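Need a sequence for this fold. Nothing fancy.
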């Protein structure tokens, strides 16, 4: 089985340059040193023209270029399994599309996130049927209006409370649908700021209660258990780890940046 790790420090989708350092550190953290690795270059965070809006999308050209680059790597390398290290949540788009083409209806996708991250058919086209995807960790009561199409489209979902009450719910979903392969998007903001500090809502000096979007509620051991169960219930062919916001590293870097010795 051919495996491949792709590192994409994509920041443009979330318009947040801090994701670049977060992805680079995550590349060191994820225990996959033995995997062949390709790193996709991203736009210069100091070039404001990068964020030029086209077709209603910020940084359209940069994002399109990075998407095409990942697709090209996958087409050339033809891996059976893909580890994706990001970057913002959109880094899963190309690898999951590739895995869908490779495994078809045998693939189930688990999107572990506090937010649904789904688009309308006018905004996106995807090859996955709705019953191949489940959202896990979704904090429904705090969803922003833009995310309410998760209810309109009746996307399968499990809240943190439901995951705690039924710890086997995700593996049961995989087995119940007969999926032979599974791909998991693990957005770190599915975690609670009190359980994991390297996420957006855990910025030092702020109150997570004031964060302008839903805040995660899961603990790291809970997520580790879910991932282990999924790994045992089907062949894990895709894993994305995204939205690492390394506040301590970012703040330390900023504190040292003005020193003449480092210029």
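Here you go.
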């Amino acid at each position: 089985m051919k495996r491949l790790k792709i590192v994409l420090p994509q920041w443009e989708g979330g318009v947040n340059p801090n994701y670049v350092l977060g992805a680079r550190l995550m590349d060191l953290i994820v225990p996959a040193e033995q995997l062949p690795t390709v790193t996709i270059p991203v736009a210069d965070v100091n070039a404001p023209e990068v964020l030029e809006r086209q077709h209603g999308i910020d940084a359209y050209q940069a994002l399109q270029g990075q998407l095409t680059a990942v697709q090209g790597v996958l087409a050339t390398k033809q891996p059976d399994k893909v580890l994706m290290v990001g970057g913002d949540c959109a880094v899963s788009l190309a690898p999951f599309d590739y895995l869908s083409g490779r495994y078809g209806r045998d693939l189930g996708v688990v999107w572990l996130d506090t937010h649904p991250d789904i688009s309308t058919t006018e905004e996106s086209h995807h090859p996955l049927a709705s019953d191949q995807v489940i959202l896990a960790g979704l904090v429904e009561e705090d969803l922003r209006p833009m995310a309410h199409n998760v209810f309109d489209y009746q996307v399968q979902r499990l809240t943190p409370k439901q995951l705690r009450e039924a710890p086997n719910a995700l593996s049961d979903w995989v087995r119940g649908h007969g999926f032979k392969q599974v791909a998991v998007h693990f957005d770190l903001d599915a975690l609670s700021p009190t359980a994991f500090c390297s996420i957006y809502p855990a910025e030092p000096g702020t109150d997570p209660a004031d964060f302008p979007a839903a805040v995660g509620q899961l603990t790291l051991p809970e997520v580790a258990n879910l991932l282990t169960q999924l790994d045992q219930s089907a062949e894990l062919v895709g894993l994305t780890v995204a939205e690492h916001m390394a506040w301590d590293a970012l703040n330390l870097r900023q504190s040292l940046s003005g020193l003449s010795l480092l210029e």
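For context: The two ends are 46 Å apart (CA to CA).
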